[in-house]
Amino acid sequence: MLFEFFIVVCAGLVFGSFITCASYRLPLEQDVVSKPSYCPKCDKKLGFKDLFPVFSWLFSGGKCRYCSAKISIRYPIIEIITAGLFSFIYLKFSITPEFFILSATSVMLMIMIVADLEHFIIPDCVHVILLPLAFAYRYINGALNPDILWGFGLMTGLAMLLHYGYSKMRGRTMLGYGDVKFFAVAGVWLNLEAIPGFLLLSGILGVLLGLAWRALGKGPVFPFGPALAIALFLGVIYPQSINILYYIK
């Protein structure tokens, strides 16, 4: 088990490195797969010594080895968080189909969070990949039923109402198209009884994020994607905890 855990942590660090790349390139419409890693300041192609998760950043003093440009601390932080998520999922599910599906899901959600925080964009590939992962997860849990269509329709309708109706009332966009698409995908992931709890939790997290965003001087408009991503992750991992009907009973 200790060796498995070590492999999981290493995998988390490696995928965390992928997240740092994807969350930077996708909003800029750059190739993620075939284009080699490079320094955005001097365009120098990076080698293995420059790409080792966390340690490359530490040993280089947080600077590019070629041009001495400062490398953002976002890189090791994202890698460590991803390793933590992989470890958390492993400790809860061990090496099972759930582990692989939820680990892949956490990678997509991390890309979504970082890209939205930095660019106010949720890449379409996040929705495209999260959708089949949702069907796979529900299938292995015996929850692949017609309720998926109800959840998809309900969340899509609610998101469109917020995008057009509430935004028109407030005079500015309150929910972007990326958020609308994510609402639809979340409707496939969640059981119907978990949707009210998801909405409540994402609202609370959104308020907290908005307060923190303004406290940091980032302005009145803040990305809602991170709140949605965290709420969905918690709702999938702990479905009963966000089931409001459970507490009413």
Mean pLDDT reading? 89
- Order of secondary-structure elements: HHHHHHHHHHH
Q: What distance separates the N and C termini?
A: 39 Å
Low-confidence stretches: none
Helix proportion: 55-70%
Number of helices: 11
Proportion of beta-strand residues: under 5%
Shape: globular
Any idea what the radius of gyration is? 19 Å
Note the quaternary state here. Answer: single chain
Main β-sheet description: none
- What structural category do the secondary elements indicate? mainly alpha
The strand count comes to 0
Overall number of domains: 2
What does this structure look like?
68% of the residues lie in helices and 0% in strands. It has 249 residues and is mainly alpha-helical. The longest helix has 24 residues, at 2-25. The model has no long low-confidence stretch (mean pLDDT 89).
Q: Brief description of this entry?
A:
By secondary structure, this protein is mainly α. It is built from eleven helices and no strands. It has two domains: 1-95, no CATH class; 123-249, no CATH class.
How would you describe this structure in keywords?
249 residues; mainly alpha; 2 domains; 68% helix; 0% strand
